[in-house]
Amino acid sequence: MTDLTGQVVLITGVSSGLGEQLALAVAAAGANVVLMARRQERLTRVADQCRILSASQAVALAGDISSVKAVDRVFATIDEMFGRLDIVINAAGFGYLAPAVTIKPALMAKMFHVNTLGVMYVSQLAAQRMRSAGHGEIVNVASIAGKIATPKSAVYAATKAALIAYDNALRLELRADHINVMTVNPGPIATDFFKTADPTGNYLDSVKWLALNPVKFAQQIVNKLGHHRREINAPWVMNAANLGYQVAPKLGDWLAGSVFNFK
């Protein structure tokens, strides 16, 4: 098990789902955790659970990752309380499944502000502090959808594809500073994510056979911290499909629009 004793870890999007499980796994590894999410009540509950798991600190800071002012407040608190930041894990994000020709512009903008621009800004501020310290790790949760887009996920997939591209460049920029950038690309996860993305519940029901367990997947991510891992792509069947997509894109288009289209 990864030992994070004494390290300071910022995690965004921790009020539920994968973000919550990542917070608990990092706390159990001994880290001081700084938790950011929009919902104060759930955020406080997760922080309390972290304190039970670890003798280290758990700081709950309510805020929206799409707000520059909110992110600035979080980093100001980290500077004041700890004076360092070793790891940041951006798990904040949301999706909404809708045809590209009908999805509302406001919803498109919101997804980009949360899933892409907000994560980029957190990563930028983290990188500035890590570069001064000469070490650190940035972990951004994107999606396998950013590699294999399917019908009704055009905008969501675009936000994640942009994040993957950003990470690929950021990784190269920070390599000489001993800062690793790891991109996590999960397929469907059995969480409340789909209550927003697909209120009908039909999609999650159709992919239960390959949906990731959030507790186990969070532990898998934490176990890779400090190992200079470039990417985590899961589950294996979707990672294999992605590799095949690169080799035979026309076949990949057919599969993405038929066999792997559960929406």
What are the main properties of this structure?
263 residues; seven-stranded parallel β-sheet; 7 strands; globular; Rossmann fold
Q: What this model shows, in words?
A:
With 263 residues, this protein is of the alpha/beta class. The chain has a single domain, classed as 3-Layer(aba) Sandwich (Rossmann fold). 50% of the residues lie in helices and 14% in strands. The protein is built from ten helices and seven strands. The chain has helices spanning 17-28, 40-53, 68-81, 105-133, 154-174, 193-197, 202-206, 214-223, 236-247, 249-257, and strands at 8-12, 32-37, 58-62, 87-90, 136-141, 179-186, 231-234. Helix 1 crosses helix 8 (214-223) and helix 9 (236-247) crosses helix 10. The radius of gyration is 18 Å and the shape is globular. The chain starts with 7 loop residues before the first strand and ends in a 6-residue tail after the last helix. It comes from Lactiplantibacillus daowaiensis. InterPro entries: NAD(P)-bd_dom_sf, SDR_fam. This is SDR family NAD(P)-dependent oxidoreductase. GO terms for molecular function: oxidoreductase activity. It is an enzyme of class 1 (oxidoreductase).
What is the number of independent domains? 1
In percent, how much strand structure appears in the residues?
5-15%
Question: What letter string, H or E per element, gives the SSE order?
Answer: EHEHEHEHEHEHHHEHH
* Assembly classification: single chain
Cα-to-Cα separation, first versus last residue = 37 Å
Radius of gyration: 18 Å
Query: In this structure, how is the largest beta sheet organized?
Result: 7 strands, parallel
How many individual β-strands? 7
Q: Examine the secondary-structure arrangement and name the CATH architecture.
A: 3-Layer(aba) Sandwich
Low-pLDDT runs: none
CATH class categorisation: Alpha Beta
Helix content: 40-55%
Give the averaged pLDDT, no decimals.
Answer: 90
Look up the CATH topology: Rossmann fold
- The CATH superfamily is identified as NAD(P)-binding Rossmann-like Domain
Q: How many individual helices?
A: 10
Strand order of the largest sheet: 3-2-1-4-5-6-7
Based on secondary structure, the structural category is alpha/beta
Q: What is the 3D shape?
A: globular
EC number: 1.-.-.-
InterPro entries: NAD(P)-bd_dom_sf, SDR_fam
Protein name: SDR family NAD(P)-dependent oxidoreductase
Pfam family, one: adh_short
